[in-house]
TrEMBL record:
Residues 160-216, 224-280 form the CBS domain. Keywords: CBS domain, Repeat. This is Signal transduction protein. It comes from Candidatus Sedimenticola endophacoides. SUPFAM superfamilies: cAMP-binding domain-like, CBS-domain pair. Gene3D superfamilies: CBS-domain (3.10.580.10), Jelly Rolls (2.60.120.10). InterPro entries: CBS_dom, CBS_dom_sf, CBS_domain-containing, cNMP-bd_dom, cNMP-bd_dom_sf, DUF294_put_nucleoTrafse_sb-bd, GlnD_Uridyltrans_N, RmlC-like_jellyroll.
Amino acid sequence: MDIELMEIRDFLADHHPFDQLTEKALSELPAKLQIRYFRRDAAVPDTGRLPDHLYLIRTGAVELRGADGELLARLGEGDLFGYRASHIDEHSEIQGIAIEDTLVYQLAAGELDRMCSQNSQFAFFFGSAKKGRLRDAISFTAQADQNQINIMTTPIRELLRRRPISIPASASIMETARVMSEERVSSILICGGERLLGIVTDRDLRSRVVAKGLDHNLPVSQIMTETPSTLDSSDFAFEAQLHMARYNIHHLPVMDGDRVAGMLTATDLAKHQTTSAVYLVSDIYKQKSIQRMREVSAKIPELLVSLAAADATAMSAGHIITSITDAITTRLLQLAEEQLGPPPVPYAWVAAGSQAREEQTAKSDQDNCLVLDDAYDPARHGEYFKALATFVCDGLDSCGYIYCPGEMMAITDQWRQPLRTWKNYFSKWIDQPEPKALMLTCVFFDLRCIYGDQQLFRQLREHMLNKTRGNRIFLALMAGNALSHQPPLGFFRNFVLIKGGEHDHTFDLKHNGIVPIVDLARVYTLAAGSDAVNTLDRLDLVVSGGEISRDGAHDLHDALEFISDLRIQHQARQIRAGGKADNFMSPEALSHFERSHLKDAFSVVRTMQNVLQQRYQR
């Protein structure tokens, strides 16, 4: 068997139900497959009926839709459809659409029937007992199973199922291919003793060896990817998904400190969790126009519904939704640089507000700014950065992130300045904290660099924290400002509701429930001199500094999660009903259990506001 067929055989062996075939049947199968390539938006199949063949996705993604256009499933690498793999009645009514350039292995139904007749375990996979299998495929609309819930908080180490497979850099390409075949893996680690040097994948064997006719006796170090991207075994599985999507990789070495713990693949993740968020992020980075990005971003409400159905925690949902905003922002900046040319001086694109804190739910307005290198000269460089900011802010608005009503965006000249000017801004806000300055600090003290020169951003953060650390007068004024948002709870623990107008007889979960906790955590963080930005991270970190008791931090943590979870479920219900997501909830929409616990959460916030007030009044 030549190296290309061997590579296909190994891919098949790594995917159920082909792992149930005998060694002989598995080795013979690659020669019987048709390798088909479908361009984005092409129909699959392009001739005949869906059940005429079995399709195995090698790369790319396919959506299956019903006769009325309803999304039934979204499938990715390693997923099967067609023949009897979909198990949805009336196959002729199902249509497949390639949602990105897709390579599939196609096997005729007659050949598959013959294989089933010779292997009962293999045949069982395609029997009627598997009727619910497609429901577990990648889908926005399917109800999530327990595995889908767990992946939001499951460490990567719990997904590793085997020891790391490695080979020294001096091994030959042929020996590497042999070990990968024997171990039935699609990638292998290249190590020097305990140190990770590189990685080789089945794709590398195809594109760097077979396609170029490279000598198989050369050392594998000649084709490996050096110093590959890695994550730690303690990182969450959903972070691995987003990392793979952002960098367009399918094999991720996992580290335990300096030691290699194992290899995680996109297929491993697909077995446990819907990858709809990953497809969205991956799709965004492939777009060449704002119009196409707008089409992708329009799917975010569906994703929120999916996360709500999966009972995702508010923290994990916020990270996932925000990662899509980050991807859209980054891709817009890349497109702007392609259009305008390389930047004349270094810059950092910085997000503020909920995007900076990674706490977004449904799409919201944009808060951002540009920090430019001090070599910036307005006369020589001003037009470039104005054009870049305009392109990105207009693009974000087109994708549903509306312009900030307060114009706190990089498109505004005031918020597109060199580092020295930004340092002067913060010095003035902190040394002369009049009301407008306090309002601005509530936005610009929550910052995160999205793209560009991280060092510029770090210098600004360090300057800001040095100015606020131990500054009791400024912190007292910030504490007073934090008390301006009060929980909607009356003296007798009754809800205080909005009267009149569009939102009559409701309360605002965001501004009167979540924002007060965000404000409290910000004050604690500035007092401790911490650079944490996410609210839950802030609450976890400031306990050690003595700014808040451990019990108080835990109570606020629980209150924020409960209120945020209610908000996500509320917005998901609105989206499912065909409306727009908002933050205004009527008490009648709450169960007795929810109503009681929400009052407890609001009481916690009020208590901690009183503690903060007493601390800084003294």
